[in-house]
Structures are given as structure tokens and as C-alpha cells.
Amino acid sequence: MTDTTDDRKKVAELIKDFRFAMFTTRKADGKLVSRPFTVQEAEFDGDLWFLISKSSSPAAELAADADVNVSMSSNDAWVSLSGTAWLVDDRSKIDELWNPMVEAWFPDGSDDPDVGLVRFTAESAEYWDTPGGRIATVFSFVKSKLTGEQYDGGESGKVEL
């Protein structure tokens, strides 16, 4: 696993372009379950913040097991973060992150007592980036098939955060 500043910067650079994440927790029966969450801050410093219903299944699962995975993807990049998450009681942070889109889930506003805040702290990350998007990926794949050379899928890395 690499541990360079460049890899950390690469992860932060990729994450700033993602709006949605799949948030994976462990259910009481031990099975993993992933749900879509909206990333509330684009600036990645090792932590991600999510607004959540305190009465939701993910909130209960976090109370029992804080180990989670957060994964994100686009047409040309993927990031998988492993770490821990927990509910944070911080009304000022909720107000800071609040936006009109969140009201679709919490129509009573940021003062709704069910509005919760999750802080996720990443411990490690894996990323895959295919600069140039789909066209470059298809070109590399076709080139691989025609030349018999191994497919070069772009840049990837693993980093301890």
C-alpha cells in the first residue's frame, strides 16, 4: 500500500467531484448493506460529513458497528474509502451543511430533532482513474485486444490516510 502525499492529494482531488456515495454498514445479522448518501462537503481532509435520520436503519447500524465503507464513482473514476463513522450531535454543523436539497428528506427543516449528522473518518482508500473518460477507456481496451498487450486501465493506487 502506498503512503505518499501525491496519493492523498489524488484521492482528495477525485472526491471533490463526487456528489453521491454508497455508504456501506453492517446489519445486525452480519450482512453488509449499501445505501446512497449525499456528500455534504466537497473539501476532503480525511473526513466526510452526511446528514441522516437518527431513526433510520443506518443510524442504528452505526451504533452497533462503526466500521464502514464509502464508495463513489463517475464515468471515469472510482474511490473506495474504509474507515469509521459515528453520529455527532452538533447543531451548528448541521446548520452549516444544511441546503435546500436536504429539505426533501427533512421537510421540517434543520431544527427537526430527527436530523442527525454522521462524521466518517477514512483510514484507507483505493482509487482508479481513467483520464479521458469513456472514449479513452474504450480506445485502451480495443488497443489491448488488437495488440495482445495487457489492458492499461488508467491510474490506480492504495493509500493509508
From TrEMBL:
InterPro entries: Split_barrel_FMN-bd, Stress-Dev_Protein, YdaG_split_barrel_FMN-bd. Gene3D superfamilies: Electron Transport, Fmn-binding Protein, Chain A (2.30.110.10). Residues 6-152 form the General stress protein FMN-binding split barrel domain. It comes from the Bacteria. Transmembrane segments: none annotated. This is Pyridoxamine 5'-phosphate oxidase family protein. The lineage of its organism: Bacteria, Bacillati, Actinomycetota, Actinomycetes, Micrococcales.
